[in-house]
């Protein structure tokens, strides 16, 4: 039997709009991808700050590479996951 929009119960609506936690994909489901992205973002902020505070040119250049690497690690996997999970 096919299910149409008219068949949605009030219980289904409560499940859809239930609030999620900070690192959760769905209520009660922890997301390791979100945790990894958050840690990589914090690492990029840390390396960016350190590279700005150090005065040596070689150290600043390495810090810039590390900062952009961690920024890429923070945002690219989640974007690729969304792209991979889309239905064609």
Would you give an account of this structure?
The protein has a domain at 30-88. The longest helix has 29 residues, at 57-85. It has helices at 10-16, 32-53, 57-85; strands spanning 24-26, 29-30. Helix 2 packs antiparallel against helix 3. The model has no long low-confidence stretch (mean pLDDT 77). A hairpin with a 2-residue loop joins strand 1 (24-26) and strand 2 (29-30). Strands 1-2 form a two-stranded antiparallel ribbon. By secondary structure, it is mainly alpha-helical.
Question: How do the strands and helices of this protein lay out in sequence?
Answer:
Layout: H1 10-16, E1 24-26, E2 29-30, H2 32-53, H3 57-85
Antiparallel strand pairs: 1-2
A few lines on this structure:
By secondary structure, the protein is mainly alpha-helical. The protein has three helices and two strands, in the order αββαα. Strands 1-2 form a two-stranded antiparallel sheet.
Number of helices: 3
The profile of the biggest β sheet is: 2 strands, antiparallel
Order of helices and strands: HEEHH
Strand arrangement within the widest β-sheet reads: 1-2
Silhouette:
elongated
Question: What keyword list fits this structure?
Answer:
single chain; about 90 residues; mainly alpha; two-stranded antiparallel sheet; 3 helices; about 65% helix; elongated
């Amino acid at each position: 039997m096919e299910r149409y929009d008219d068949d949605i119960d009030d219980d289904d609506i409560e499940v859809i709009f239930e609030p999620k936690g900070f690192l959760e994909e769905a209520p009660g489901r922890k997301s390791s991808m979100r945790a990894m992205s958050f840690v990589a973002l914090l690492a990029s902020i840390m390396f960016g700050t350190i590279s700005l505070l150090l005065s040596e040119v070689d150290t600043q250049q390495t810090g810039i590479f590390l900062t952009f690497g961690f920024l890429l690690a923070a945002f690219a996997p989640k974007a690729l996951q969304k792209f991979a999970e889309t239905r064609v």
